[in-house]
Recover the amino acids of this structure.
């Protein structure tokens, strides 16, 4: 991670876009990655544990410090959460525009209408750096069977749009400790858990991602110090995101 740099000279950094329903843990995952790489728990990306609507309102790029003078050569983009209603949460069309690099940093999402060409925050001439290089679907492991058909349909539509652009895709299932008592007792049991394996299989059937592209993680939420076992799950997912994103850039 520390020495990674895209081999494609047209890209100065690899862009990772997270999307999923409200409360899935997208912002918390960004904080967790930064916590792992900095060796201490951080809260750079704002989160909220009580609201039923998305706490994230802007399209924002998050860079992670790599030493005193630089940053890692990959960035995360957080996005407003998906909701059941057509008049709540991020619009699918906004996510498609973000995938193509048309959404400028700082754009304020409007649940009542999607971005249009010419709007403030619309980027008419995106570069390769502006485009998304890997799409990550984020979903809580304790709620796979509870999500509405409307949100699944939106997530599937985003997946198909990314496919048409050639963008690779992975998923992370968060909150594994809340979903499985075995994992809560010992986080090292995550990939031994039959229940969590069942959730991966359900997610595979509902969204279509193959199981080896679905990763189980626990975000740093209540901890005040980092732990190797939690770090390992996060780094496993992050490494594959970078591998697949790098393959996309090389194929271009």
């Amino acid at each position: 991670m520390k020495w990674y740099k895209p081999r494609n000279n047209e890209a100065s950094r690899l862009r990772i876009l997270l999307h999923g329903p409200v409360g899935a843990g997208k912002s918390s995952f960004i904080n967790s990655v930064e916590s792992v790489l900095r060796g201490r728990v951080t809260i750079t990306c704002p989160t909220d544990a009580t609201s039923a609507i998305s706490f994230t309102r802007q399209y924002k790029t998050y860079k992670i410090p790599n030493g005193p003078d630089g940053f890692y050569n990959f960035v995360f983009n957080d996005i407003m959460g998906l909701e059941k209603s057509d008049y709540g949460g991020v619009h699918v069309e906004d996510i498609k525009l973000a995938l193509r690099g048309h959404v400028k940093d700082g754009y304020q999402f409007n649940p009542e209408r999607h971005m249009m060409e010419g709007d403030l925050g619309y980027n008419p001439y995106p570069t390769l750096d502006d485009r998304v290089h890997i799409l990550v679907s984020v979903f809580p492991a304790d709620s796979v069977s509870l999500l509405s058909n409307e949100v699944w349909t939106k997530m599937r539509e985003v997946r198909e749009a990314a496919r048409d652009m050639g963008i690779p895709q992975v998923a992370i299932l968060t909150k594994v400790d809340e979903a499985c008592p075995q994992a809560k007792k010992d986080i090292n049991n995550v990939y031994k858990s039959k229940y969590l394996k069942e959730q991966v299989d359900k997610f595979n059937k509902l969204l279509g991602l193959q199981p080896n592209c679905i990763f189980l993680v626990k975000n740093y939420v209540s901890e005040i110090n980092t732990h190797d076992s939690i770090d390992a799950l996060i780094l496993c997912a992050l490494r594959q995101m970078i591998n697949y994103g790098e393959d996309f850039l090389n194929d271009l």
